[in-house]
Amino acid sequence: MKVIHVSVECFPVAKVGGLADVVGALPRYQRKFGISSEVVCPYYITPFTKEHDFEVIFEGAFRQGGDQIPFTVLKEKSDVLGFPINLVHIPNILDREKVYCYPDEAEQWIAFQLAFLTWLRSLAKYPEVVHCHDHHVGLIPFLMKWTSEFRSLALIKSVITVHNTQSQGCLNWDKSALLPEFERWKSGLLDWDGVINPLASAIKCCDAFTTVSPGYFSELQQRANGLESLFRLESLKGFGILNGIDEHYWNPSSDPLIFKNYSRSSVTSGKKANKKSLCEKESLYTMPHLLAYIGRFVEEKGADLLPEIIEELFASPSNNLCVYILGSGNEVIEDRLEVLLAKYPKRLAVFFGYDEGLAHEVYAAADLLLMPSKVEPCGLNQLYAMKYGAIPVVRGTGGLWDTVTDVDRSIDGSGFVFRDSQPSDAVNAIRRALNTIGNADKVKTLRNRGMSLDFSWDKPANEYIDLYRQITN
Ligand code: GLC
């Protein structure tokens, strides 16, 4: 069976968030289980495209209005990712340095989808399944099924994975001029609340949809940024499949990006060495405990709570705690953190931005990883943290509920879970965590437990394969 994943992010081609990690790993695991899985994503100007060699596998043009827009499809030559990676190159439309935040985003993603389908139509053998990720490529199921331009693709099955519903890619109806012709009575398959909504359209037109955790699947029926009734209506073709992590890449015993490698048996000394190295580099006190936050500074991730949480924690003299933050985003949050940095230069360090290598160092060094998310469709950071022996302190929502069990509520708990989104809830959970990890035996047990949990892609990769089989039979 052949499956093509379509996404605007894929690690290491271009990464902004967890979407890239999923698309950059899942196809490799599917291939391990006999599925011929590959990825199509835009050609950006990133270190990956600069450093690798590509061959042109298609040259053509897609039609838009009266125009023909030329594009090429480039395939990476050395199979560096362990699956074929095909990049759609549309001069002046996709070949940019960033993935998001351009004013013509609607045109960008529509062009990508039309170019992809034009290339797909040219293939001698069609895949059985096109697997779309998030709203940026959410028009594909509609375009394949309901436009005369792409009618030849109508029998290919489509799956959409919902990684997040916060942004849905809505477009005013005047943008329909950018789409190939379709019968007007099909407009309802694109529309949600008077606008073209690519995510809603994908849910309506796909053969199956998935969410990145079972917890998020249930949650979406109650809270989905306006799409809850659609998720309820279409729930019979929906499945919650928990994300995995790439255990070859995220492995403290072989990770080349961390100061000292360690395994379960050497976790105590290994983490101590990594913590010392990071704290010295950042001129932090080498306090007994290091709490980390890694992620975008957006409200959804609870980043707006960070300044108050830090103030409250540092106000208590009994806390032997330093905090490391890696992320960027909302300027108000950044400014508030700057103020705290000046106030607590030896206890707080912030790296404004994202650096993949540094993220690995932080997981290896941290004792606790905080995720105060208001919404978390799956969350990968808590999984990376557990693999690196850092104990997660999380707000119980979506995938965090599914992956972290509270130590005080279960004998095989793996972390600390709080229910509400007030800074004090997070602080109480962190205090509970600090009490526990103050005990050398308890912390060792907890670290070992987290490190031995199986979060590999093996199981989810097979769940996706079962789903493909179900819809193609
Ligand atoms: C999005 C979600 C996150 C999830 C990731 C990968 O970034 O916000 O929870 O882990 O996608 O599916």
Separation of the first and last Cα atoms? 12 Å
Helix content: 25-40%
- Which value, in Å, is the CA radius of gyration? 23 Å
- The total number of structural domains is 2
Shape: globular
Q: Beta-strand level of the residues, as a percent range?
A: 15-25%
Bound molecules: alpha-D-glucopyranose
Describe the structure.
The protein is built from 17 helices and 17 strands. It has 473 residues and is an alpha/beta fold. It folds into 2 domains: 2-244 and 458-472, Glycogen Phosphorylase B (Rossmann fold, 3-Layer(aba) Sandwich); 267-452, Glycogen Phosphorylase B (Rossmann fold, 3-Layer(aba) Sandwich), CATH 3.40.50. It has a 9-stranded mixed sheet with strand order 3-4-5-2-1-6-7-10-11, with helices on both faces. Strands 14-13-12-15-16-17 form a 6-stranded parallel sheet, with helices on both faces. Strands 8-9 form a two-stranded antiparallel sheet. It is globular, with a radius of gyration of 23 Å. The protein starts with a strand and ends with a helix. Bound molecules: alpha-D-glucopyranose (GLC).
What keywords describe this structure?
single chain; 473 residues; alpha/beta; Rossmann fold; 2 domains; 9-stranded mixed beta sheet; 6-stranded parallel beta sheet; binds alpha-D-glucopyranose
